């Protein structure tokens, strides 16, 4: 026990006791139930691992390894005492996901059977209007395990080379060749599974030919090129390990007239961006960002979304000037395309038609998907069973914010494209989903999104479903802020007042957030509070955990967050590491929690 002093004024100081972490009462009771003579031997620990932690395959040998690892906390080598037992439970050796499992989903199925970690405008360093373009955010995304990189390619100022930039904005360009070389260097640092480069092409045929040469020379043998232009089924991630895949529309004649027509849009975009940046300018400085948009319509809490109508021609896939191959195109560019993108003429019904002889990629904005889902939800699910659907942020997200990814995942969309350069709750959900399957960037979709019933029926995202399981969550305590933050970070005059928010992000009926009470003036808060969450679609649900510091006069301070895919969440008492707003793991901050599934 030590003391910490806070200066209130020149003549007055406040002193607070700093206690050591102590096992909560329930942990003490469990230790007493499983230990004998205040020692937990390998056989006792094995029984605890099986019965409480639900590790049915645990062995006495594994229990002995744990005991040996925490020998320095106890003198006797025959077992764990209460202190070492508590230290084990609250250590990195007891995480909520099994790190040793690595990649454990079946990776031999077609690409359309997986959710894929997907970036949007991957080259931007900040907002969509005026930030620099660079290969740095591409490198950062690949290091985090992102598997789909988007590049907008345009002629440079002299029309003799290719730049990457957000067209018709004030963004400063970066050379395409630099981006390609960085992708090659960092593509498989975090995962050996394939990287898809989606190209939004604004080039003349001669520059398309130059792109083909750049791509071929840069990637060489690791570039995957299909034997035929049309394929009946996408290859599997397993067959494409350490390969680069190109996805774009088949090339078309570059139309100067089209650019002239769209040129007037740049000023409108700038004006809209100026308004948006003024409106949201302070939001980037907020402690943790806005609440995730609700799938029910409206909000989960205080989220206010702009519902401006969005032009269907917002991205290249919806370009009315798409044409069949013509004599002016670059055939070598066309041969690079492994995943063909495009939109058939005839509206949404035609877009969602499934061709038994050909698979393709379709892109919809978040708003287009929301509107399509109202009357075509099952058609979207059926389309995504064989084809790839990419969802991207609406055009008014000038500040590089994101949307609720569940709108895409619940309809089977494989490529839910996010702005990776920012931070906020929506991005935390994305990071949480792709902690699954060893963090390889590919997560196999739940079977119900892939199955077709006897009457050719598919999953209905709007159907009211019964509760499959109840997740019971106990929040015991937290620690680590004293080491990872300055002592006056949360409060100038006293220790912090922490509380925890815990809840579910999932289908509408499962989505909820709850919170504990705030514990005053304590770096080691102990809550001992329990919550229950009924789940109708646990396969898509994410457990959301956030810690905040209560501030009576100002906005509450951020103290850490994490999102965990419930389909891979381990039962039992676990140590939960927390992450910063930007998704970086804290060195010491973590929570002790218990998870129980009640059928």
From TrEMBL:
Pfam family for this entry, one: PI-PLC-X
Lineage, uppermost ranks: Eukaryota, Viridiplantae, Streptophyta, Embryophyta, Tracheophyta
Acidic residues biased stretches: 307-320
Annotated SMART domains: C2, PLCXc, PLCYc
Reactions this protein catalyses: a 1,2-diacyl-sn-glycero-3-phospho-(1D-myo-inositol-4,5-bisphosphate) + H2O = 1D-myo-inositol 1,4,5-trisphosphate + a 1,2-diacyl-sn-glycerol + H(+)
Bias kind Basic and acidic residues: ranges: 254-289
PANTHER family: PHOSPHOINOSITIDE PHOSPHOLIPASE C, PHOSPHOINOSITIDE-SPECIFIC PHOSPHOLIPASE C FAMILY PROTEIN
GO biological process terms on file: lipid catabolic process; phosphatidylinositol-mediated signaling; release of sequestered calcium ion into cytosol; response to stress
Gene Ontology cellular component list: plasma membrane
Cofactor(s) this protein cannot do without: Ca(2+)
CDD domains to which the protein is assigned, alphabetical: C2_PLC_like (cd00275)
C2 domain sequence ranges: 451-580
Primary localization class, coarse: membrane
GO molecular function, one term: phosphatidylinositol-4,5-bisphosphate phospholipase C activity
Name this protein carries in UniProt: Phosphoinositide phospholipase C
Superkingdom, natural source: Eukaryota
Domain PI-PLC Y-box positions: 363-449
Annotated membrane topology: Peripheral membrane protein
Cell compartment(s), UniProt: Cell membrane
């Amino acid at each position: 026990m030590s003391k910490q002093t806070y200066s209130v004024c020149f003549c007055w100081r406040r002193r607070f006791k700093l206690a050591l972490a102590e096992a909560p009462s329930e942990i003490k009771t469990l230790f007493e139930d499983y230990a004998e003579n205040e020692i937990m031997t390998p056989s006792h620990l094995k029984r605890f691992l099986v019965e409480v932690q639900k590790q049915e395959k645990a062995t006495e040998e594994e229990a002995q390894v744990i005991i040996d690892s925490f020998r320095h906390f106890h003198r006797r080598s025959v077992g764990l005492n209460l202190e070492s037992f508590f230290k084990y439970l609250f250590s990195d050796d007891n995480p909520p996901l099994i790190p040793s499992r690595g990649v454990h989903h079946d990776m031999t199925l077609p690409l359309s059977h997986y959710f894929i970690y997907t970036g949007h405008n991957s080259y931007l360093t900040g907002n969509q209007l005026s930030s620099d373009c660079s290969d740095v955010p591409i490198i950062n995304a690949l290091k985090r395990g992102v598997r789909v990189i988007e590049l907008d390619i345009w002629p440079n100022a002299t029309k003799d080379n290719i730049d990457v930039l957000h067209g018709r904005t004030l963004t400063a360009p970066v050379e395409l060749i630099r981006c390609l070389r960085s992708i090659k260097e960092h593509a498989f640092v975090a995962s050996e599974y394939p990287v898809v480069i989606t190209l939004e092409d604004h080039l003349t045929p001669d520059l398309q030919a130059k792109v083909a040469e750049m791509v071929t020379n840069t990637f060489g043998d690791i570039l995957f090129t299909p034997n035929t232009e049309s394929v009946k089924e996408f290859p599997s991630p397993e067959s494409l390990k350490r390969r680069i895949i190109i996805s774009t529309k088949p090339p078309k004649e570059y139309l100067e007239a089209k650019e002239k027509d769209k040129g007037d849009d740049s000023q409108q975009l700038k004006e809209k961006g100026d308004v948006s940046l003024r409106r949201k300018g302070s939001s980037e400085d907020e402690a943790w960002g806005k609440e995730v948009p609700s799938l029910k319509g409206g909000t989960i809490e205080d989220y206010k979304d702009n519902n401006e109508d969005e032009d269907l021609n917002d991205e290249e896939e919806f370009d009315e000037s798409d044409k069949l191959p013509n004599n002016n195109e670059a055939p070598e560019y066309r041969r690079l395309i492994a995943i063909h993108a495009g939109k058939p003429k005839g509206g949404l019904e035609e877009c969602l038609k499934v061709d038994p002889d050909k698979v393709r990629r379709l892109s919809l904005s978040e708003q287009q998907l929301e509107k399509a889902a109202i009357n075509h939800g099952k058609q979207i699910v059926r389309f995504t069973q064989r084809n790839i659907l990419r969802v991207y942020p609406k055009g008014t997200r000038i500040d590089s914010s994101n949307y609720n990814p569940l709108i895409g995942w619940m309809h089977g969309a494989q490529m839910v494209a996010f702005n990776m350069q920012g931070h906020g709750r929506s991005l935390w959900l994305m990071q949480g989903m792709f902690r699954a399957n060893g963090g390889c960037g590919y997560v196999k979709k739940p079977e119900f999104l892939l199955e077709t019933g006897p009457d050719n029926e598919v999953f209905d995202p709007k159907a009211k479903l019964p509760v499959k399981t109840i997740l019971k969550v106990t929040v015991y305590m937290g620690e680590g802020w004293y080491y990872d933050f300055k002592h006056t970070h949360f409060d100038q005059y006293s220790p912090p007042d922490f509380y925890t928010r815990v809840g579910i992000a999932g289908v509408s009926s499962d989505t909820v957030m709850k919170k504990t009470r705030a514990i005053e003036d304590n770096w080691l808060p102990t809550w001992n509070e329990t919550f229950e969450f009924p789940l109708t679609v646990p396969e898509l649900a994410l457990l959301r955990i956030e810690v905040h510091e209560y501030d009576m006069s100002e906005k509450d301070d951020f103290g850490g967050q994490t999102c965990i895919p419930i389909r891979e969440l381990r039962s039992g008492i676990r140590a939960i590491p927390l992450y910063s707003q930007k998704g970086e793991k804290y060195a010491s901050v973590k929570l002790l929690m218990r998870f129980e599934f009640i059928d």
